[in-house]
Structure formats: structure tokens, C-alpha cells
Amino acid sequence: VMQQDTVAIVMLSTAASDSVKYWPDSGSERYGSITVSSQSEVVHPGFLVRYLVVSTESTSREVMHFQYLNWPDEHSGCVLRAKSCSVHLPVL
Asked: 36-65: per-residue pLDDT in tens?
């Protein structure tokens, strides 16, 4: 996030149990030398947006975290091809 000047993260998994959860539900959590603070969460049809602040000792950055809730998992039999798959992010 800091090294690449990231402002948005897109999570294509429907559940945090499929991967390592790297954000707090509320408040702040420390992950090594990085602190992640949850500012708010907005639910939209099919996805949600979390507003986070990621901080180190020397800097902090606001990050939007998009989680798509209806994305097919690897066991659904759905095959996505890069050429035919498009996701339109809303203007927030």
C-alpha cells in the first residue's frame, strides 16, 4: 500500500475466511509495523466499500477497500476470461 501509493484494494473473494483478513471490523489493529484503522463501511448491492487508514510510524494513507460479495468462487464451475470480464466501479 505505502510502497505503491495504493488508494484502492479490490477483493474478489466473498469471505475473509478464504484468505487472511487484513482489516479490523472496527477500530484499529496492528499488523507488524503497520496499523490499519477502520473508518466506515458502506454496503451496496453486490459489494461493499470499507474506508480504511493504513499507517506506519512515518506516514498514513486513506485506502478504499472494495469487497465483491457475488464473485463466483473457484468451485462454482464459472470460468472467467480476462478479455470478456469487466467490472465497473461506481463513482463514489
From this structure: 999 999 998 888 899 999 999 999 999 999
